[in-house]
Specification:
heterotrimer; A mainly alpha (about 325); B alpha/beta (about 280); C mainly alpha (about 300); A: about 325 residues; mainly alpha; MetI-like fold; 12 helices; globular; B: alpha/beta; 2 domains; about 25% strand
């Protein structure tokens, strides 16, 4: 016959039995979890519904043509998102033209060509750039870059004969070009970090196979590593575009707030984000406000679509990376 | 069935391949490879006879693969330090004025797990070595590709889908594709690092047949931990074991039949007989 | 070259030396002819290949330098222009009307602290619970929540600001801290949820299952095992989310009454004015904000690296 001595022993068995039968606490906890998840979903849906409802007035007024019609002239009661979508596309495109070579080049440097200590500290530096608030970037761009661009960079670009077509007109600083540079600065960390991961993820086995055939280091990078990282790089660029589309405050500070067809990159312009920032406060209640909110709706749809694509690409990158990591001894 | 009997039977099936008059393809003199402070393998003095199959055998971790990779300077990028002399047909592989890329272009390598380039078609995979080395002539590329694929016993299987991705092939086929890729640059030596370890027995048998067929024209160095495989296909065997400091070393080398049947070193005998049953 | 004693031809179209005489192009002799051509090409092109490699490496290095430049310039200029404006007054005095010396941004600092603090109180519990939900449950709802979180991370902060405006400011007809905090909380929530879930997943799954198998109440298991084990990861993720929230401007545009009540708004309002002394305030506030965010991110990273070190 066993005597149950040892207080600790009895206590823990009893505890376990008691715990097993205690349902109410468990139910409360489960309820909290469900509640949190439900709350989150509610917020998500609420966002979409709210924007949709508030845009409806504008859409009713201007019709579906709001989405692509070209005039944004509140004074004349004309509201059309088209010109702003164009501005958004132009600034984002120019930003990508800057960021793709610089970002991929830097990612290649960090992943393949730099010594480990340098790669580590530069990576940290780029991640810190990602943390800089957009308002600080905007302030710096407005007060430091804009005079620099107006006085030196833009006149210089104008003077190059080949580029005349892109850069003509009066250069006074705030411009589509400057906004694009700001977007490039803000999306660079995304491109570098994700591309670097994609490049590093290319299997050692593939690199060694190329090396064993007599390829130089650069040939390996160009013919094996970059192609192998294709999908990851595509994800990186897509997510960068998504980030660029949604950036509003920094762009608003340097783009000049002039919704007009951009005839030159050094002319001022406007994007969806910048228009919302600049126009919301003064928008005429009713139609005006609704139109600005409709702009937000367009922006929402655009960014969600692009980001969904980017995340899908990111997920596609995952399995291959896991399988491909075959270091051969 | 012992490795010795298998070796004897294999050599009985075909006449012994004569070492050519041109001398050994690769010589290693007192080679030692270390990573930082840790010595991986030492005391390796070895002649790899031209147009014969030399098997590097021994248990895992004894330095066989390390020695193999030292031959085509793959340790340049893994931080391994190689001391001693390695000569490829008279050229000092590690001389300061030797270009590693040129050495590697004379040596073909096949790895443990098949590693065709995933983003290239079958044809591009086979011709990749030639293209890396500056060959652009399309006609020559196609000829070399077909030749290599035939020698790898793969031509009939892939000739109608040369532009498809290599990843649809089975494991054994992918490995033969890698062999073709290595052969396409017409190497002096073919290094094979346990090429069958990731393959099923049927694929393994096909590759062993391939090795036997290729052997009279290409010098082959085969790392394998499978003594029966070494007995089946190799002309010479080099046995690597751990010494008392747990550092790999070359214990014995000679014709396969002799090494397995009547080894001169006691430790070799223990290793060989330990593999029975 | 002997022929008679060779083993039978290997299937697959492989060659025996017998074929050599007929199919001259595929045989070994043809290969022997190709070999010197290949070796010569290899040798001849090596110099060019290496040169291209050097140029390529140089370009990549240039790109890295260009990529580093904005950060350096940002920190330098913000420090250079912001430091002169820092003083005791700056931190502890409220703004004063034009022309009177001794003003500061204390209201903005305290305002930001209040708004972010309330946002943290709103977001962290929901974030932790929602990520526990994701961690424990599989199925369509969990998948939908995860997908929704990914989508929400990409929603522009200005859209979130408009949402908060529609939900709080317009119906109540006045700006409020709650509206601003709500906007920031919505912004931070998806980041927290995803980061938390990642952190929890890196905790050994068997620990959790063992706990449940012993019959303990699910919440007890969750609390003691998973949360404690993933604490460093949770801290990192939440710190990064907070750091993001602190720096946001757009959501506050539509929810905060005046720029003097939030640092980011103050920077925007003062920075866009043409007067140097007003801009000075913007620079100094920006410096404080930048330092705070960098320290917060740095701390988060430190916790993360200590976590990975301990895991090894």
């Amino acid at each position: 016959m066993t005597t149950l001595t040892g207080g600790a022993g009895i206590a823990s068995i009893k505890d376990a039995v008691r715990l097993r039968h205690e349902r109410p606490g468990g139910r409360a906890y489960a309820g909290l979890r469900w509640g949190a998840a439900g709350l989150f979903v509610a917020v998500l849906l609420g966002l979409v519904v709210s924007v949709a409802i508030d845009s409806s007035q504008a859409l009713a007024h201007s019709g579906i043509g709001f989405l692509w019609s070209g005039t944004w002239n509140p004074a004349a009661n004309q509201y059309g998102a088209g010109i702003l979508v164009l501005g958004t596309v132009v600034t984002t495109s120019v930003a990508m033209v800057i960021v793709v070579p610089v970002g991929l080049g830097m990612a290649a440097f960090l992943s393949e060509l730099a010594p480990r200590w340098l790669a580590g500290s530069l990576s940290t530096a780029i991640d810190l750039l990602a943390a800089v608030p957009s308002i600080v970037v905007g302030l710096w761009a407005l007060l430091v870059l804009s005079p620099l661009f107006g006085n030196h960079v833009e006149p210089f670009l104008k003077s190059i004969p080949v580029l005349e077509w892109f850069f003509h007109g009066y250069a006074f600083g705030p411009s589509i070009l400057l906004a694009s540079v700001v977007l490039a600065v803000m999306t660079l960390p995304t491109v570098v970090a994700l591309s670097r991961t994609a490049l590093s993820g290319v299997a050692m086995a593939d690199r060694e196979a190329a090396m064993a055939l007599g390829a130089t280091r650069w040939q390996i990078v160009r013919e094996v590593v970059f192609p192998g990282a294709r999908s990851g790089i595509a994800a990186a660029l897509t997510l960068a575009v998504g980030r660029a589309l949604g950036e509003s405050i920094a762009v608003a500070m340097v783009i000049g707030n002039s919704p007009a067809v951009p005839h030159s990159l050094i002319a001022p312009g406007a994007t969806l984000g910048s228009a919302i920032v600049n126009q919301f406060a003064e928008a005429a209640p009713g139609i005006g406000t609704s139109s600005v909110i409709a702009l937000a709706g367009v922006l929402l749809v655009l960014t969600v679509a692009v980001n969904a694509g980017g995340h899908a690409l990111l997920r596609g990158m995952g399995p291959r990376r896991a399988a491909g990591d075959g270091a051969v001894r | 069935m012992t490795p010795a009997s298998v070796a004897a039977e294999a050599s009985g099936r075909m006449p012994p391949r004569q070492a050519t008059a041109s001398g050994p393809a690769v010589t290693l003199e007192d080679v030692k490879v270390s990573f930082g402070d840790h010595v991986a393998v030492r005391n390796v003095t070895l002649e790899l006879a031209a147009r014969q199959v030399t098997a590097l055998v021994g248990p895992s971790g004894c330095g066989k693969t390390t020695v193999l990779r030292a031959i085509n300077r793959l340790h340049d990028h893994t931080g391994g330090r190689v001391e001693g002399k390695i000569r490829l047909g008279g050229v000092d592989v590690y001389a300061p004025d030797t270009d590693p890329e040129l050495i590697r272009a004379r040596i073909g390598m096949v790895f443990q797990r098949p590693n065709p380039f995933p983003t290239m078609s079958i044809l591009d995979n086979v011709t990749s070595g030639l293209r890396f080395n500056g060959i652009r002539n399309k006609a020559m590329l196609r000829e070399a590709a077909e030749s290599a694929l035939r020698h790898a016993a793969l031509w009939d299987i892939v000739k109608d889908r040369l532009n498809q991705t290599a990843l649809r092939l089975s494991g054994g086929q992918q490995q033969r594709l890698c062999i073709a890729r290595a052969l396409a640059i017409e190497p002096d030596v073919l290094l094979m690092d346990e090429p069958c370890s990731a393959l099923d027995p049927i694929a393994t048998a096909k590759i062993e047949d391939l090795i036997t067929n290729l052997a009279s024209e290409v010098t082959i160095v085969l790392v394998t931990h499978n003594m029966f495989q070494a007995a089946r296909v190799s002309d010479n065997a080099a046995v690597f074991l751990l010494d008392e400091d747990r550092v790999g070393e070359l214990v014995e080398v000679g014709p396969t039949v002799q090494v397995f049947d009547s080894p001169s070193n006691e430790r070799t005998k223990q290793y060989v007989t330990g593999h029975v049953g | 070259m002997t022929g008679a004693d060779r083993p039978a031809a290997v299937p697959g179209g492989a060659l025996t030396p017998d074929d050599d005489s007929e199919a001259g192009r595929w045989g070994w002799a043809a290969g022997e002819r190709r070999r010197p051509i290949i070796q010569a090409a290899s040798r001849r092109t090596l110099r060019r290949r290496r040169l291209i490699g050097r140029v390529g490496r140089g370009l990549c290095m240039l790109c890295a330098a260009i990529g580093l430049a904005p950060l350096v310039a940002l920190v330098y200029y913000t420090a250079e222009r912001g430091i002169p404006g820092l003083s005791v007054d700056f931190f502890f005095h409220a703004p004063v009307p034009e022309g009177i010396p001794g003003g500061g941004v204390s209201t903005a600092i305290s305002g930001t602290a209040r708004i972010v603090g309330l946002a943290i109180v709103m977001a962290i519990p929901v974030g932790v619970l929602a990520s526990l939900f994701l961690y424990e449950r599989r199925g369509r709802l969990a998948g939908a929540v995860r997908f929704g979180a990914d989508l929400l991370t990409g929603v522009p902060s200005i859209v979130i600001g408009i949402f908060a405006y529609a939900l709080f400011v317009r119906p109540l007809h006045h700006f409020s801290d709650v509206a601003a905090s709500f906007a920031l909380a919505v912004l931070m929530l998806p980041i927290m949820i995803r980061a938390n879930e990642e952190a929890m997943r890196s905790v050994a799954v068997d620990l959790w299952e063992a706990g449940v198998a012993l019959g303990a109440r699910r919440s007890r298991v969750a609390r003691s095992v998973v949360l404690r084990g993933s604490l460093p990861g949770l801290v990192t993720g939440n710190l990064l989310a907070i750091s993001r929230g602190v720096g946001e401007t757009a959501p506050l545009l539509f929810t905060v009454a005046a720029p003097t009540f939030a640092m980011t708004l103050l920077i925007y309002a003062d920075g866009t004015q043409p007067y140097p002394d007003v801009q000075q305030t913007a620079w100094s506030t920006a410096l404080v904000l930048l330092l705070f965010v960098l320290v917060l991110s740095g701390a988060a990273r430190l916790v993360a690296s200590r976590l990975t070190r301990r895991a090894r």
